[in-house]
Design a protein that fits this description.
The complex is a heterodimer of chains A (about 425) and B (about 375). Chain A is mainly alpha-helical and about 425 residues long. Chain A has a three-stranded mixed sheet. In chain A, strands 2-3 form a two-stranded antiparallel sheet. A two-stranded antiparallel ribbon of chain A has the order 6-7. Chain A is globular. Chain B has about 375 residues and is mainly alpha-helical. Chain B has a single domain, classed as Orthogonal Bundle (ABC transporter involved in vitamin B12 uptake, BtuC), CATH 1.10.3470. Chain B is about 70% helix and about 5% strand. In chain B, the strands form two sheets. Chain B has a two-stranded antiparallel sheet with strand order 1-4. A two-stranded antiparallel ribbon of chain B has the order 2-3. The chains are: A mainly alpha (about 425), B mainly alpha (about 375). Chains A and B meet through helix 7, helix 12 and helix 14 of A and helix 7, helix 12 and helix 14 of B.
């Protein structure tokens, strides 16, 4: 939507373009700033603020997975692993678990009693390791990226279907390892199924000294669990950061290398693209988004429980990326928002409306995963490029229309058969479009 | 990479003999291209670091198993019988994966859920429609009817899924059918929730609950029945694939789809038949699973499906005999891990299974029989 807006409004001069872009961004910021109050007053039943926050969290996950699946074309069925690492980093560094952690040797029990406070909102009386959220997300991003490298290094050589399977395997193994790691040779590493909590609230640092701002209002010193408004601003900032990173990378050397690999791995390697390094980068960057999202999720939910890291999560995020349009940053956000809204509010809301209207008693929520599966199947069959196709795919289409209208010769080398381009809007490249028999 | 079903003119029995003699089955020519420089299984002429580490791990595993056996022979053997029976079920499911992969190179993520639906539909048929809940001669007859019903239902469902979802994507980039398969898997799970409820549903077995004593170990009748039903099914499938016209067409299509099309083989029909065959085996496995475990759950397909896929990978995806051997091996490994002394126990089952999967896929994607066909970058 936004990309469309920009492409329509582009004047000829570069300065005009820049002015337009800056105005657009300012308008967007104002709209985003106004969202929480608007939502809270106008659409509490249809779109509660808590759901809006979760939508933004999943948008961040979708942005991360979009880099792996959309940009580099690597199918990852184990994205939950990075979510898990991010959440556990937050749990270790932002809770009193470090104080409780103990090791048993025979009958004697040794308590470690870590007690560290570092720019945190937690009071000194609460023991344990408490580090500022803003440092924790950096650590979470690094840990998750490193996990991405570790998982990726042996597996990225594999073909796409085996890669999907191996990532799925990692996504299943890691939760089980964390679940069973409450007794690693007597050492309680993860607290097992009991989970770790409570996780500290986010501290806003010196920003709470600011005067009352328009739309945003006064920033509180810490974000309490009911304060969805400030949570929303925090996650939007994180999303914006990742949108910026995604766009910069996409248009840079690395992004072009990713897309070259996605289109044709062999051709890319012949052109001198280092396959392993490029693929690993996509894993690391995508994983970092998962780690940041995981750490944020841990703070808003307040506890980290191993049961929340399921295969279904990986598929929901994948569903978001595919629904929005693989390889499109805005599409990933839109997909994440839509899927999350359906998951947390939409299905119950629509189900309630349908039932009261028709007098039925269908619990639409029961069909949630079936519907997500249906989304995947229908999208793949009828609109594999997603609801908002990537810009590149659209440009290809436009260029082809132009050449077809002009009766010119084939300028872009895709062949004069319009069907070829029609089928290649998928953004997966040209190794053969979908064969609609 | 062409899927390797062994040499097309080679009967499964011969492959088995060769495997037993430590010789790998001849690969189709396409596959052979990728093997240059790869160490052949069973012919360790030259040792690479990889093969030495592999052998060391294998040796360690064998030593571990012997240690476990020595610590409690009775328990070990008892667990082993459970493993063989589980392995038979895994083999039935793994065949569905391997046949489909062999013919259209698709990892059918939905296959495990098809098995789950088979178990649920079979249990509903036997318990609610026919009302057989305890062991009797009539109940056994009805059990046979249930098998046929579940097999037919799953075969039909699998064919429909292929027609609606996979067929149009046959020439699409690989990502598309893989994602579709996951989508289908979720849809089937949702159907499972609707039929079975989201909690495990306990069912009653119509097989006798007694056991036979062989020496000091007790073997439950139900495990014997599972193996006794599986073996004829496997033989029947071997006969279909090896001796019938459609089986010949299947093997041809698996080797080269375009060439078989040129030879006048109706490839669409062959692929439909392959899905039907895989579905029928999954349905049979589902009914047997209920008789052994006395419960149905909607998420059984995901877990067991992945374990069965591990079995298929272990035996070499696309290799029919490999799927059977892999299934039995995985079944035994799982039961040993769950029950035998000195193993990790049930809470680590998934980790053990998926570690095997990951290690196999990374180091021996061709399976234990296949040559190393890894596509290196």
């Amino acid at each position: 939507m936004l990309a469309d807006f920009f492409s329509k409004m582009q004047p000829e001069s570069a300065v005009g373009q820049r002015i337009l872009r800056i105005t657009g961004i300012i308008a967007l910021i104002i709209v985003i700033m106004a969202i929480p109050d608007h939502v809270a007053t106008n659409s509490a039943g249809f779109l509660p603020l808590g759901t809006v926050v979760l939508c933004a969290v999943y948008a961040l996950f979708a942005l991360g997975l979009n880099i792996v699946v959309g940009f580099a074309g690597l199918l990852d069925h184990g994205y939950v692993a990075f979510f898990l690492f991010g959440a556990y980093v937050a749990a270790f560094l932002m809770s009193d678990f470090g104080y409780q952690v103990s090791a048993r040797k025979g009958s004697s029990e040794h308590q470690f009693s870590f007690d560290v406070h570092f720019f945190t909102a937690a009071a000194d009386t609460i023991k344990g390791i408490h580090v500022s959220f803003w440092l924790v997300i950096i650590v979470a991003a690094i840990v998750a990226a490193f996990a991405g490298l570790l998982i990726g290094a042996p597996t990225l050589r594999l073909k796409s279907d085996y890669l999907a399977l191996v990532t799925l395997g990692f996504g299943e193994i890691l939760p089980e390892v964390f679940r069973n790691s409450d007794n690693v040779a007597g050492f309680n590493l993860t607290n097992g199924t009991k989970g770790i909590g409570p996780v500290d609230q986010i501290s806003t640092g010196y920003f709470h000294n600011l005067p009352k701002l328009p739309l945003i209002g006064k920033i509180p010193p810490t974000i309490v669990s009911a304060d969805n408004k400030t949570k929303f601003y925090v996650i939007v900032i994180l999303c914006a950061l990742f949108v910026y990173v995604s766009l910069k990378l996409r248009d840079g050397k690395l992004g072009r290398a990713w897309m070259a690999i996605r289109e044709d791995e062999l051709a890319a390697s012949l052109m001198g693209v280092p396959l392993m390094r490029t693929k690993l980068w996509s894993y690391a960057v995508g994983a970092a988004a998962g780690g940041i999202g995981g750490a944020f999720y841990a703070t808003i939910v307040g506890t980290v429980n191993v049961d929340s890291f399921t295969f279904a999560f990986s598929i929901i995020v994948l569903c978001a990326v595919i629904l929005g349009g693989m390889g499109n940053v805005w599409g990933a956000i839109a997909g994440g928002v839509v899927i999350t809204w359906f998951s947390y509010t939409g299905l119950t809301y629509i189900g309630g409306k349908v039932n009261s209207g028709l007098g039925t008693s269908i619990n639409l929520k029961d069909y949630e995963f079936g519907l997500f599966g249906l989304v995947l199947v229908v999208m793949m069959l009828f609109r594999p490029q997603g609801l908002i196709p990537a810009t590149r795919a659209r440009q290809v289409k436009k260029a082809d229309m132009k050449t077809a209208n002009d009766g010119d010769e084939d300028l872009i080398g895709f062949g004069s058969d319009p069907r070829v381009v029609e089928e290649d809007r998928l953004g997966y490249g040209m190794q053969g479009g979908i064969n609609h028999e | 990479m062409a899927p390797s079903w062994g040499h097309p003119n080679l009967y499964l029995g011969e492959i088995f003999n060769m495997a037993a003699a430590g010789i790998s089955a001849p690969q189709s020519q396409d596959a052979a291209i990728g093997q240059t420089g790869a160490a052949e299984f069973g012919a360790p002429k030259k040792y690479t670091t990889e093969s030495i580490v592999g052998l060391a791990v294998l040796g360690l595993a064998i030593a571990w198993i012997i240690w476990s056996f020595a610590s409690g022979p009775t328990l070990f053997l008892q667990v082993l019988t459970i493993g063989l029976s589980n392995g038979a079920l895994y083999a039935l499911i793994a065949l569905g994966y391997t046949m489909v992969y062999g013919i259209i190179e698709l990892i059918n993520f939905a296959h495990g859920d098809l098995f789950m639906l088979g178990s649920v539909v079979g249990a509903i048929f036997l318990e609610q429609w026919v009302g057989q809940k305890s062991s009797s001669a009539t109940a056994w007859l009805w059990l046979a009817a249930t098998m046929i019903f579940a097999m037919a239902a799953c075969a039909l469902l699998n064919v429909v899924i292929e027609k609606l979802a996979y067929r149009r994507l046959r020439n699409a980039p690989k990502l598309a059918p893989l994602i579709t398969a996951v989508g289908v898997s979720f849809i089937l799970q949702n159907i499972g929730i609707q039929l079975n409820g989201s909690a495990p549903h306990s069912r009653s077995s119509v097989l006798p609950k007694t056991s036979i004593s062989v020496g000091s170990i007790d073997i439950r009748i139900k495990y014997i029945v599972v193996v006794a039903v599986t073996i004829p099914l496997l033989l029947l499938m071997t006969w279909i694939v090896q001796k019938t016209r459609i089986g010949k067409a299947m093997r041809a299509a698996a080797q080269d789809r375009d060439a078989s099309l040129l030879m006048g083989i109706n490839v669409d029909r062959v692929i439909s038949f392959t899905f039907a065959l895989g579905g029928a085996l999954a349905g049979a496995a589902g009914v047997l699973f209920v008789q052994v475990n006395e419960q149905t759950r909607y998420d059984a397909g995901f877990r067991l499906g992945l374990i069965a896929f591990t079995a298929a990978v272990l035996g070499g995806v696309g290799n029919l005999l490999g799927a059977v051997v892999g299934g039995v091996l995985i079944g035994v490994i799982q039961s040993l891990n769950d029950g035998a002394p000195h193993f990790l126990g049930q809470k680590w089952t998934q980790t053990v299974m998926f570690s095997i999967l990951i290690i196999m896929v990374i180091f021996r994607p061709g399976g234990i029989f296949g040559a190393n066909q890894q596509e290196k970058v």
